[in-house]
Amino acid sequence: MKVAVLDINGKETGRKADLSNDVFAIEPNNHAVYLDVKQYLANQRQGTHKAKERAEITGSTRKIKKQKGTGTARAGSIKSGVFRGGGRMFGPRPRSYSFKLNKNLKRLARKSAFSIKASEKAIVVLEDFSFDSPKTKNFTNILKALDLQNKKSLFVLGASNNNVYLSSRNLKGSEVVLSSELSTYKILNANQVILLEGALEGIVTNLSK
Description:
- This protein is an alpha/beta fold.
- The protein folds into 2 domains: 2-45 and 101-207, 3-Layer(aba) Sandwich (Ribosomal Protein L4, Chain: A), CATH 3.40.1370; 49-96, no CATH class.
- The protein is built from 7 helices and 6 strands.
- The protein has helices spanning 21-24, 30-43, 103-119, 136-145, 162-168, 184-189, 197-207, and strands at residues 2-6, 12-18, 123-126, 153-157, 174-178, 192-196.
- A 6-stranded mixed beta sheet has the order 2-1-3-6-4-5.
- Helix 5 links the parallel strand 4 (153-157) and strand 5.
- Helix 4 crosses helix 5 (162-168).
- It starts with a strand and ends with a helix.
């Protein structure tokens, strides 16, 4: 698959980038995508929720009424969950929501996500660029040139570039990641995926193992 390479002004450079069909033109596996996105969102959960149960409530331990003869249900503790102020029955406890997925399935999910974006014409290849210093205005100018001001965008770098990352950090709708940090969720969550030329080889290498 051939895609025109753009410069930071949104103009074609006259070069074409070759996107591997093994990564960007496969038949998407929707279930693999579902599982990988589910795992990503599950890993974001802190799992620190906690409710006090009857053993953890402060209160009297006396029997609050006699066992028989009252005409109502027996009750042995004011800390029971049936009374106001009592402990919660089967309340949430701290836990981890993470679960395991095989590497091959995660690679398939990411290739499926790229193929979905490619079929939607939502992938742009941009020539490598850098900034002399971190400036949000510089990054905003690139978004304007690519008509991405009001869209969610994901910029994928081939190598770490601190100035580009810091320039984008204040922009809510844009995210900059390395090719090794890609996830299925981030790819699908973006309206437009911008791949820098230097990232293409790393993406194909990582997803072809």
